[in-house]
Specification:
Blueprint (H helix, E strand, L loop, with lengths): L1 H14 L3 H9 L3 H10 L6 E7 L4 H12 L3 E5 L5 H7 L4 E5 L3 H6 L6 E4 L4 H24 L4 H13 L13 H34 L2 H6 L5 H30 L8 H24 L4 H19 L10 H7 L3 H13 L8 H24 L8
C-alpha cells in the first residue's frame, strides 16, 4: 500500500510539474463551455424553416398556412434541391417536407408522409413538432368524425378555424438552449478526457524509454502496482476535469444542466473508467510514445465525431447512427440526454451496464496484452 501511495504521488508530481500540463489537464476541458456559448448563447429567437410541398393538397396547403401564422417562426417555401444547401449555410434552421399522400393520410386518420430535418437537433425540431403535431392531431380528429369525407371535412375544418376560443397562455421556460449547450460541452469534455487519459498513460511508455521503469522494478515496486498507480492518477485527473467543467457550467455560467449535478457526475465518472481503459489498450499495443499518440488520434477524434460529440447524432445518415451504437461516447451522451428528459437511473440500467461493459472490456484487453508480452520490455 505504501509503495502504491508513493507511486501515485510520484506520477502526480510528474503530471503537474509544468504550467503547460496544468493548462492541458485542467483548463482545456473548459473550452467546451466557450464553444457552446458561441454556438448557442446568442441564437436568434425567430426560427426559420423551409417547407417543401410535394403533396399540393388542400390539407397540406392549410398546414403551411398555419405554420406561417405562428409567432417566432418564419416560413419559406423552397424546392427540395436547395434543402441541403440552405440547412448547411444556416439560411434556414429546419426543413419540413410534405410528401405525396400527406393529405390522404390525414383524411384516413393516420397522418404520415411528413419529415422534419435540422442540423441543430431537438432544439429546433422539438419546437416545430410541438405546434405542428398538435395541429395535425386536430385535423385527424375532424377526419375521424367525418369518416374521411373530404367535403364534410372542409366544412367542419372551416367551422373549427373560424370558431372563437377563449385561450389562456402561460410562458414556460425554454430549456432547449441549455440542453444543447450542455450536450456540446459534455461532448467536448468526453474527447478531452480521452486524450488526457492517453497522455497520462503514455507516462508508462516515457519511463520505459528512459529506463526509469526498469529501475523502479529493481525495488520492491511491482509492475502491477506501477500500472495500478497510473490508473489511480488517471482517475484523479479525470474526476477533477469533470467536477471543474460541470461546476463551471452550472455555477459560473449559470447554464442549467436540467439534471442534478451528482447524476451527471456519476455518468461521467463511469465514462472516465472507459477512457482510462482505452488508454491502457493503446499503450499495450504501442512500441513507443509516437505510435501511441498516432493511434490515439486515429481512434479518439473519428469515434467522437461519429458518436455525436460535436453535433447532434440525428443529422447523420442512419448507417452512421448504427455504427455509433458500438461506441462508448454515444452511450454516454445518450444516458445524459435521457436523464435530462426525466428518466431515472433505474430505467437506464441497460445504458449503465453497457458503459461498465465497455470499461471492463478495455481493461481486460489491456491486462491480456500486458500479460502476453514476454519480452524484456514487458510491463507485467
Amino acid at each position: 500500500m505504501q509503495d502504491t501511495f508513493w507511486l501515485v504521488s510520484k506520477t502526480l508530481r510528474t503530471t503537474f510539474r509544468s504550467k503547460k500540463n496544468i493548462l492541458l489537464y485542467l483548463i482545456t476541458p473548459l473550452a467546451g463551455i466557450f464553444m457552446a456559448l458561441l454556438a448557442y448563447g446568442g441564437q436568434d429567437k425567430v426560427t426559420t424553416i423551409g417547407v417543401v410541398n410535394y403533396d399540393q393538397g388542400t390539407i397540406s396547403t392549410e398546414t403551411i398556412a398555419y405554420l406561417k401564422k405562428l409567432d417566432h417562426l418564419k416560413v419559406e417555401e423552397i424546392k427540395d434541391t436547395s434543402v441541403t444547401d440552405k440547412l448547411t449555410s444556416g439560411s434556414i434552421d429546419s426543413a419540413v417536407t410534405f410528401e405525396h399522400g400527406y393529405s390522404e393520410s390525414v383524411l384516413s386518420g393516420k397522418p404520415d408522409h411528413i419529415d422534419i430535418t435540422s442540423i441543430k437537433g431537438e432544439s429546433v425540431t422539438g419546437f416545430i413538432k410541438t405546434y405542428l403535431y398538435q395541429y395535425i392531431d386536430h385535423l385527424t380528429v375532424i377526419a375521424t368524425a367525418v369518416d374521411g369525407d373530404s367535403d364534410q371535412f372542409m366544412r367542419m375544418y372551416n367551422d373549427f378555424r373560424h370558431e372563437d376560443f377563449q385561450l389562456k397562455t402561460t410562458a414556460l421556460k425554454d430549456s432547449s438552449t441549455s440542453k444543447n449547450m450542455t450536450y456540446m460541452t459534455v461532448g467536448f469534455l468526453i474527447m478531452i478526457m480521452m486524450y488526457s487519459a492517453n497522455n497520462l498513460s503514455e507516462i508508462i511508455l516515457a519511463e520505459k524509454e528512459n529506463r526509469t521503469y526498469f529501475r523502479l522494478l529493481s525495488t520492491p515496486v511491482t509492475a502491477q502496482k506501477y500500472i495500478f498507480s497510473n490508473v489511480i492518477v488517471n482517475m484523479i485527473v479525470m474526476i477533477i476535469q469533470i467536477v471543474a467543467t460541470l461546476s463551471a457550467l452550472s455555477l459560473v455560467f449559470h447554464i442549467d444542466l436540467n439534471i442534478p449535478l451528482w447524476k451527471a457526475l456519476v455518468v461521467m465518472v463511469i465514462f472516465s473508467l472507459i477512457a482510462v481503459g482505452l488508454s491502457l489498450v493503446i499503450v499495450a499495443f504501442s512500441n513507443g510514445r509516437k505510435s501511441a499518440s498516432g493511434l490515439s488520434i486515429l481512434l479518439i477524434t473519428p469515434t467522437s465525431m461519429l458518436s455525436g460529440c460535436f453535433w447532434p447524432i440525428e443529422i447523420m445518415p442512419k448507417s452512421i447512427q448504427k455504427i455509433s451504437e458500438f461506441l462508448p461516447q454515444r452511450w454516454t451522451l445518450d444516458t445524459l440526454s435521457k436523464l435530462q428528459e426525466g428518466h431515472d437511473f433505474g430505467s437506464l440500467y441497460l445504458n449503465i451496464l453497457i458503459l461498465f461493459a465497455f470499461a471492463a472490456a478495455f481493461f481486460l484487453v489491456a491486462i491480456y496484452k500486458f500479460s502476453r508480452n514476454n519480452s524484456t520490455n514487458s510491463f507485467i
